[in-house]
Amino acid sequence: MAASGTASAGAAEATDDAGAAAGKGPFLWRVDGRTPIYLFGTIHVPDDRVLALPPSVLKAYGEATALYTEIPMDAGTQMGIMGKVMLPDGTQLSEVIGEPLYNRMTAAAEKTLGADHAGMGAILGPLFQRMKPWAAMSQLSLLEFLPDMMAGKQPLDAMLYSRAQADGKTVGALETPDEQIAVFESFSVKEQTRMLELTLDEIERVKPGARTQTQELIDAYLSGDMAVISHVMDEAMAGDTALMSRFQDIAITRRNTHMTERILALRKQQPATVFFFAVGTAHYAGPTGIVAQLQKAGLKVARVP
Known about the structure:
alpha/beta, six-stranded mixed sheet, 9% strand, disordered N terminus
């Protein structure tokens, strides 16, 4: 349930400073030192094209002895999170956001799943009723991948985490689940409801057979160009710039600082460990991104071509 995040509006400006040449391979950076560490930008979806790791990423992963994601991706942790995204007993989402918006949400879910998976709606209805608005928004954004995930396909971050466990690497996380949940809990119910409404606006905008915003974001990710990702995310934020600016500050910028501090601490505590950090690509972008902050700390960070 890692947050997908958004790219900063200044991502395009920051790419040259970060040694991140546009459109040249995966979002992978190497931090030089006595022992190198790697930074890999992910996208939290189980798309086959995303899961097919490029050779440079496979090489860096092979060198690494420890892999860290945003939050722990093991099954036990993920199951424990479910209880924390639910509304209090006796409260339903339709009561919190209002019946009209809730009905829009269920209609959008049916549209996203399509006729081939209409039966899933009967399962999702009771589940959505129990979720907090921000959690419903997050799940709604991933609904088009539900059939794949039910078939056992994992989002990129979870796949890497499972693979590292199977390969005997040390696994860890830069945040705790409670820290990440607190990001969304910091928004009022009114703000959470507004973000859900904006997500529904986007789903309803897509005509049958047209590409969804998530599919456009995947294309942008595969381009290897941070400026393209920034453009797609700027369009997604256009519906309420004030709210999205606040989201950018809380969900991206502040977390970048915390994650950078933990990367530096891990590097200092375990100087012989080759770390492979896999977090959402947006967290590396711009002057407040992890790449720029590590450079300001005096480290040499370069995009791997």
